[in-house]
Structures are given as C-alpha cells and as structure tokens.
C-alpha cells in the first residue's frame, strides 16, 4: 500500500503531462521530453517533502529534552518519562515512542528498546540523547539533568545556526528551479507553432532536445549539490 502511495504522484504526473503536451503540440517527441521533465520535478517535490519531515524531527529534539527533564524532576523514572512521550511528546515523534512503549511492555528490556529507537530515528541528536540515557541508566548517574540541559542548549544553538545558513542558501535552490524551468517554458510556448515542432522532429532537432534535457539535469544536480548542507555524522550509530 505504501509503495502504491509513493508511486501515485509519478503515475499521475507522467501520463497527464504527456497527454496535455501532445494535445498542445501534436508532437510525441515534445510530449515525451516534457513528461520526463515533469517526472524529474515530481521526484524533487517528493524528496523535499521527505526532507521537511526530517527537519521537523530534528527541530523537535529540544522539546523532547524539555519533556524528559520535566518528567524526571516530577519524580518519574527514566522509563516512564520516555513512554510519556508517546502521548505528550512532539506529534511527529509519537508513533516511534509508542513503539518504544509497546516494546517495553512486551519484554521490559530498556537497553534494547532504546537502541532500536535510536536506530529508527537515525540521527546524531537521537544518538547523543539516548546514549546519555543508557549511561545514566546503567551507572546511575546523578548528573543526567545537567547533561540533558547542556545537550538541549547545544541542539538549540546548532538548529539556529543551520536555519540561518539554510535561509541564506535558499536563493541557490530557487535559482536552480527557475534556471531549470525557464528555458523549457519558453520552448513550450514556441512548440505551439508548427514550424518549431517540424524543426525538432529532425534528427538534429531531436539531438538538441536530448542534449538540453541532459544539460538541464546536470545543471540542476550541480546547483542542488552546492546548496546542500552537510549532515552531521553519527558517532554512536551506523551512518545511513
């Protein structure tokens, strides 16, 4: 079911674009070229939505730490404070903390449940938080609250810095989108004239169209690479 849901945008955008462009230009070559472009942009949009989810999770870790500190200060055990996050934690994280709570109820193995939770989140922030909790649980550390506060301040500063850089670099992504789309929009307008369609149906015209598609893809990939922020490597977990 998930695979069908993920492929639905591609199954819809490709054929619909092909049909629309063919009706406008009566050219199979143009319809195919623009279908490939739309499929590529659909992939970019789907990927950006996934990136927004990861960003939302990363932005929620300071709130998780605040909930843990509040729960521990109110007299909860570490396990209780973590399981409470399935109800009171950030909404985007509740399903994973619900799975953690279920595993704790089933086998009571705190270490394995925390390790599984860390792998599911798969980020440097989750590794740091959960490793601190594991060490505190095993050694009975009395400095857990201090460690959590320090870690919370560090994560907030890191998020603020990354957000500032992301805002400054967003113009690169916008330039990539505009630079990639503008020539093809102009070509689409010209393609409504029979002479343009006739010119591109020749072997030379088809080669130019293919070259344009290739250069557009390369330019967009390069611009996206320049605007990408490096991810912080995981120290305690496997990099994926």
Automatic annotation (TrEMBL):
Keyword Transmembrane attributed: yes
One protein family per Pfam: T2SSF
Recorded GO CC terms: plasma membrane
Key word Plastid present: no
InterPro entries in UniProt: T2SS_GspF_dom
Bilayer topology: Multi-pass membrane protein
Localization per record: Cell membrane
Keywords from the UniProt entry: Cell membrane, Membrane, Transmembrane, Transmembrane helix
This protein's name: Unannotated protein
Cleavable signal peptide: none
Cross-referenced PANTHER family: INTEGRAL MEMBRANE PROTEIN-RELATED, POSSIBLE CONSERVED ALANINE RICH MEMBRANE PROTEIN
Ranges where the Type II secretion system protein GspF domain occurs: 65-190
Transmembrane portions of the chain: 20-46, 181-200, 206-226
